[in-house]
């Protein structure tokens, strides 16, 4: 969809392009050294359960780093939300309120959180690691999405 936004979140990454993006992230994490572990989504039978740890854990230099993978195709990448809608409505694509609370708790305990974000857009592609503090700041400002140029400005090639 060239004019709209289509986001594939980590819970939807069961095959195809999503798995490729996860593999891309894992390759970059392993290249930097340290212990890398894929945190498989919690399941109830064959149905993913909301919550759980971010997609990857990296331990390097005695510090735990957690990485959530997000991928979008379109003109911008949806950011998600910090809190669930009060009326029980479906949360927007991107970071869920449970993921936000988990990353806040990890950072409060001394860990570091990042998002490996990739946006493939007709206006160019951008990919890299964005600290949870930056992503959270966008959400706190009320931003709904970021364009490729904005993502490229803050995304780092590694952790």
What's a concise summary of this model?
With 159 residues, this protein is an alpha+beta fold. Helix content is 27%, strand content 33%.
Task: Work out the radius of gyration.
Answer: 15 Å
Helices and strands, in order, run as: EHEEEEEEHEEHEH
Which regions contain 5 or more consecutive residues with pLDDT less than 50? 1-15
Secondary structural class: alpha+beta
Q: Please summarize the sheet with the most strands.
A: 6 strands, mixed
* Beta-strand residue fraction: 25-35%
Q: What is the number of helical segments per DSSP (H or I, 4+ residues)?
A: 4
Would you count the extended β strands for me?
A: 10
Question: Can you walk through the features of this model?
Answer:
- This protein is α+β, with helices and mostly antiparallel strands and 159 residues long.
- It has four helices and ten strands; from the N terminus they run βαββββββαββαβα.
- A hairpin with a 2-residue loop joins β5 (56-60) and β6.
- The longest helix has 15 residues, at 17-31.
- The chain is globular.
- 31% of the residues are buried.
Please describe the topology of this protein.
Blueprint: E1 5-9, H1 17-31, E2 35-38, E3 43-44, E4 47-48, E5 56-60, E6 63-74, E7 77-78, H2 97-108, E8 112-121, E9 124-131, H3 132-140, E10 145-146, H4 148-154
Parallel strand pairs: 6-8
Antiparallel strand pairs: 1-6, 2-5, 3-4, 5-6, 7-10, 8-9
